[in-house]
Amino acid sequence: MNERPSAPFFDQLRPRLQRIAYRMLGSVAEAEDVVQDAWLRWQAADGEAIDNHEAWLVTVTTRLAIDRLRAVKAERTQYVGTWLPEPLLTDTAPSAQDQLERADELSFAFLALLERLSPDARAAFLLREVFDTDYPDLARTLGKSEAACRQLVHRARSQLQSGKPRFEVAPDTHMQLLQGFADAAVRGDMASLTALLAPQAELIGDGGGKVPSFGKTLVGGRRIAQLYFAVRRRHAQMQVEVVQINGAPGLLRFLDGRLESAQTFEIEAGRIVRVYSQRNPDKLAGLSAAWAARE
Length: 295
Known about the structure:
The chain is an alpha+beta fold. About 55% of the residues lie in helices and about 15% in strands.
């Protein structure tokens, strides 16, 4: 008899399922809903008819995430301003599985790039490139031929290639530059802020229509520096913390005691070339709670 594994089996697998769903959807809450739905379907399924429970759960989670992504992609066309993923605080010690997955495959910039892909292509690329799924398993998961899966992955690589950072930055260098930028922001040091930003740097913000934000990308290092300078001038109580966000150094900015934004950065040749600023309060709620729990 092929009995269903106990609940601890699912709890052990849950982090992997959560990682798949989060990378597919860019939302913690939606990923949790998908994983919970997978749990309910697993409980309702005939355990004796399932040969490999882990593979079954990965398949169901992936297909549920694809369906959910198709729905939210339509919703995101009506989104106010630029849509950016929900940030994750990742200061905790990484698990063995996390260590196998490269930090750049969880990064804010990477998740934003994934928005270019169709749901099927996103699933194929993530399962193959991030979770190292072989093509026969990938074909079974997506319900497609191996040839079709290879084509999906190839096209996804090509679509993402142009948006990848051209240079990799050592973690220590990234952290030191960000610490310098945070210090300059707190001091309101316009000269230092400008020096740390590339002349054609970009700032991409997401307010979700809940708080003021730029409707399009702000371009120009000096203009971005002026924005940080103006925020400092308006708020006497400003705190900036350097933390790990989505596996890379980032900043949490608190204004008047409230988390106002989570910021991640792309760096080239020792200067900041792109800032992603998540300001939508709905997308900051989970991160704010995680930060409060550390205090």
